[in-house]
Amino acid sequence: MRGISNLKKKHVAVAAGAAALLALISYAGAMRLTGNFHVILPGELYRSAQPTASQLAKYYKHYAIGTIINLRGEQRGSAWYDAEVAEARRLGIEHVDFRMSAKRGLTLAQAKSLIGILKRAQKPPLVHCEGGADRTGLVAALYLAALKGFGEEAAEAQISLRYGHISFPGAAAYAIDRS
Predict the structure, then answer these.
(1) Collapsed DSSP state (helix, strand, coil) of residue 125
(2) Domain 36-178: CATH superfamily, name plus number
(3) Can you name the residues that pair with 159 across neighbouring β-strands?
(4) What's the pLDDT tens digit per position in 127-152?
(5) How far apart are CA 67 and CA 79, in angstroms?
(6) 44 vs 46: CA distance, rounded Å
(7) Are the C-beta atoms of 138 and 128 separated by less than 8 Å?
(8) Which residues are CB-contacts of 65 (< 8 A; sequence separation ≥ 6)?
(9) Cα 84 to Cα 27: distance, rounded to the nearest angstrom
(10) Of 117, 17, 108, residue with least CA distance to 67
(11) What angle do the packed helices 53-63 and 79-91 form, to 10 degrees?
(12) Who's near 83: CB < 8 A, 6+ residues apart?
């Protein structure tokens, strides 16, 4: 009987793990479908996943976006990039490209450059990367800590599961946590 009980425990543990994984995947999928858009400080900073042209128009209408800060870098010839630049131009939104990777730590020079971009940006900026979770979270944290003087806890909250960031050593975007 004891062997059956242990077997049942293992099955329950596997089922619970599978359910948790499925919930996490569903959450991440929902974040992607909704654009992972969030207000960081009303009228000051917004963040999102890669926006479509129609999402950009909606964000501009509702939040008066002044600058798009694209953390994926310039990618002329890519459909998403060309559509974003064209829509920004059509709406009169400044467009800034800054290439950074979620797989490599942010250098001090890069952090200083980003802070300068955030200071000079036509307000309010919309910061985005592909998923709006990792790179975007780090930039939102920099904004809150370096420019607004918020504490470490408020800044670190930008790099969290709430926005789709998964943190553990060995994860693809763990460099964001180290930065």
Answers:
(1) strand
(2) Protein tyrosine phosphatase superfamily (3.90.190.10)
(3) none
(4) 999 987 788 998 999 999 999 999 88
(5) 20
(6) 7
(7) no
(8) 46, 56, 59, 91, 93, 124, 125, 126
(9) 26
(10) 117
(11) 30
(12) 52, 53
**pLDDT tens readout for residues 93-131:** 999 999 997 678 888 899 999 999 999 999 999 999 998
CA–CA distance from 129 to each of 4, 7, 13, 22, 50 (Å)?
Answer: 49, 44, 35, 24, 6
pTM, 2 dp: 0.78
Phi/psi at 127 (nearest 5 deg)?
A: -100, 135
Task: Say if CB 114 and CB 137 are below 8 A apart.
Answer: no
Residue matched to tokens 């996490």:
24
**3-class DSSP state for residue 47?**
strand
Query: How many residues are present in the chain?
Result: 179
- Write down the H helix ranges in the chain: 2-34, 53-63, 79-91, 108-120, 135-142, 152-156, 174-178
Torsion on CA atoms 153, 155, 158, 161, rounded to nearest 10: -30
